[in-house]
């Protein structure tokens, strides 16, 4: 081997070493540390979710964390679905700034959806379905402009559906069925304009006090009151008709009696 070969080999080694061992992102580390603190994992499904791994969760495209996917050394997907997780969703999740897909569905998570998720500006998929999440749907989610999927079905979310979510032009899946939401469905989501994908009643059903298109009108509270008024008016009309009929029959009968009497009288009276 010549001198130049040695130099070249050394240069290559330095170069290659620099690439995969790039320093872990401090934001990802903070995000994972806080998320791990806020979650409970009774069945120990989260393998390698330890402080040591949080400081270096990715090597290029390889992830050392169960449920995490890496892209260029950053966490870009978290899929922790169906792992019997308890606890809450940490607001520090927003420090995983390269996150594109966040799936915490089918667990037993409680507490609110942190409005801080608005800082996940690359987020395309949000699936928190089938948990016990409560509180409002944060209107700030409208700031995650790349959102394609918002799936929040089967939780205990309350309050109104924020009108601002209608601004998410890329939204192709929106499911808030089976929660405790109330108020009118914003037209910007219930009756989307132009070529925007539309969401049918299955996205909204199972919320006792939610109303408006595309939910069927009969199920709403306002209409059952109308129905009661209708029944009242209907029966009132019916009794009116009945009493009219009775009066008519009575008049007929008296008329006939009078005619008969008159007939009798005329029969008794001699003709002049
Ligand atoms: C846990 O981390 C080690 C290296 O730190 C790795 O070899 C192993 O595959 C990881 N396990 C999982 C489930 O990712
Ligand atoms: C990390 O998250 C916390 C809580 O949401 C927030 O206060 C902080 O600004 C975030 N840091 C960065 C760098 O995004
Ligand atoms: C969200 O996750 C559930 C299962 O955990 C899955 O059935 C559902 O299809 C997901 N939603 C979307 C829009 O992919
Ligand atoms: C939906 O919007 C269209 C036009 O934007 C309108 O003509 C239609 O009446 C609306 N439907 C409902 C149920 O509000
Ligand atoms: C409603 O939309 C969902 C998904 O967007 C679809 O699977 C379902 O068939 C639709 N239902 C009706 C009645 O159109």
TrEMBL record:
It comes from the Eukaryota. Residues 1-24 form the signal peptide. Its main location: membrane. It is found in: Cell membrane. SUPFAM superfamilies: L domain-like (SSF52058). GO terms for cellular component: plasma membrane. The chain crosses the membrane at residues 225-251. Belongs to the RLP family. This is Inactive LRR receptor-like serine/threonine-protein kinase BIR2. The lineage of its organism: Eukaryota, Viridiplantae, Streptophyta, Embryophyta, Tracheophyta.
């Amino acid at each position: 081997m010549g001198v130049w070969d040695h130099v070249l080999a050394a240069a290559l080694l330095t170069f290659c070493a620099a690439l995969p061992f790039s320093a872990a992102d401090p934001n990802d580390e903070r995000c994972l540390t806080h998320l791990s603190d806020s979650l409970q994992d009774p069945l120990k499904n989260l393998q390698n979710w330890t402080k040591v791994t949080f400081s270096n969760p990715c090597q290029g495209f390889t992830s050392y964390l169960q449920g995490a996917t890496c892209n260029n050394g950053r966490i870009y997907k978290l899929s922790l679905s169906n792992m019997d997780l308890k606890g809450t969703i940490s607001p520090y999740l927003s420090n995983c700034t390269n996150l594109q897909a966040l799936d915490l569905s089918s667990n037993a998570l409680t507490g609110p959806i942190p409005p801080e998720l608005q800082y996940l500006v690359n987020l395309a998929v949000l699936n928190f379905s089938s948990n016990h999440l409560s509180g409002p749907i944060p209107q700030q989610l409208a700031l995650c402009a790349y959102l394609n999927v918002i799936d929040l079905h089967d939780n205990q979310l309350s309050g109104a559906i924020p009108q601002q979510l209608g601004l998410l032009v890329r939204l192709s899946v929106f499911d808030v069925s089976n929660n405790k939401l109330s108020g009118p469905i914003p037209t910007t989501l219930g009756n989307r304009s132009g070529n925007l994908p539309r969401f049918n009643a299955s996205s909204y059903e199972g919320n006792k006090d939610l109303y408006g298109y595309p939910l069927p009108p009969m199920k709403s509270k306002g209409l059952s009151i109308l129905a009661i008024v209708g029944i009242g008016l209907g029966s009132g009309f019916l009794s009116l008709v009945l009493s009219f009929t009775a009066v008519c029959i009575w008049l007929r009968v008296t008329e006939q009696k009078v005619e008969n009497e008159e007939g009798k009288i005329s029969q008794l009276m001699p003709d002049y």
